[in-house]
Structure formats: structure tokens, C-alpha cells
Amino acid sequence: MKIVVPEGDGPVGIYGFARPKPERADELERLLLSFVAPTRAEPGSMQYQVHRDAADPSTLVFYELWRSADDLRAHLARPELAHFQQHRMDYLREDLEIHWLTPLSATP
């Protein structure tokens, strides 16, 4: 799956689900959490969260809010994110499920 960021002006939000292979679940959780601090420090990052689904604790949920689509594209081009995209199926039992959001109340 190639992540294609929607065009548009203003902030962009994204949430998604990562359903790891049972034997790689802890490793994937550590990996996703390792992205938190560097991502929050990136220009344009307004919010970056990793959660565990309360109804299905094996599923990890991520939420991101970016000042612009260009900022998100720059984030996705970072080497560690590009590497994860190339190797994500080593960790996942099914591909990432991604949903795009158009924030109505975000302030950049």
C-alpha cells in the first residue's frame, strides 16, 4: 500500500489501525512508540498519538494531526517511516487501515 496524502489546504488528520502478527506485537508496539517523540518535534506536527484499542487490545491505533498535507508528506518521506512502509508486512497480519480526516476545529 502506498500512502497517498489527499490534496487540500489547511490541516489534515489521519487515524489508522495496525493489527500485528501475534509474535511481532510487542516489537511493533515498541517501534510505533519510538516514532512518537521525533514526530512530535517535526515542523507541522500538531498531534501524534499511539493507542491500544480497548475492545481489541491486540490492535494498535494511531492518530495524527498535521498543519498541512505537505508537512505530512515530509514526515512520510523520513527514512525511518519509509523503511517501516517497506517492511510493515513483516509486523502486520493485514495491511494498515488508514482513514483521512478534514479537521473542522484544528488550529495550526
Automatic annotation (TrEMBL):
Alphabetic keyword roster: Monooxygenase, Oxidoreductase
SUPFAM superfamilies referenced in this protein's UniProt entry, alphabetically: Dimeric alpha+beta barrel
One Pfam assignment: ABM
Gene Ontology MF terms: monooxygenase activity
InterPro entries membership: ABM_dom, AI-2_Isomerase_LsrG, Dimeric_a/b-barrel
UniProt KW Glycosyltransferase keyword: no
Stated name of the protein: Antibiotic biosynthesis monooxygenase
Organism of derivation: Nonomuraea composti
